Amino acid sequence: MLIECQGKILLTRLGYAHLGWTIPGGGVHRGESYAEAARREIKEEVGIILGNLDKIGEYESRKEYKRDTVVCFRAIVSSSDFRIDNIEIAEAGWFAPSALPQPHRPTIEKLLRMVVTD
User: Fold this and answer.
1) Which ranges of the chain does DSSP label H, i.e. alpha helix?
2) Can you point out the beta strands (E) in 1-118?
3) Strands 8-14 and 89-95
């Protein structure tokens, strides 16, 4: 989920698994649409209630020997306020696309190529 505010994107660093910076998001529950899952995951992880979502693309992931379709959305928010859940997320922050923190997941660049950010 690519969340933008004033030309910056919101990135999170997980408290488990890989320790690199990534975009917030997660899995889809049975009976849930991709958009509903995106809204739920963002609310759970960073406390942001999203309005309009724009689907910007999708790709297939074969991570961990699975075959998943990853649907990518973009949302533009007017406030940079967030609140991390402290369970899954170790920290979060807003970053300019030209100044991404290290280390970060390659997925970020893939998403940025799907859109032209302001």
Assistant:
1) 34-46, 107-114
2) 2-5, 8-14, 21-22, 54-61, 68-76, 89-95
3) antiparallel
**Phi, psi (rounded to 5 degrees) for 36:** -60, -40
Residue 61: how many CB atoms within 10 A of its CB? Answer: 12
Q: Give, in order, the Cα–Cα distances in Å from 34 to each of 28, 38, 53, 56.
A: 6, 6, 11, 12
> What pLDDT score was predicted for residue 79?
96
Q: Which residues of the chain have pLDDT under 70?
A: 18, 116-118
User: Residues with Cβ < 8 Å from 46, sequence gap 6 or more?
Assistant: 10, 12, 24, 82, 83, 84, 85, 89, 92
The size of the chain, in residues, is: 118
Two structure tokens written together for 82: 């967030």
One-letter amino acid for residue 97 of the chain: P
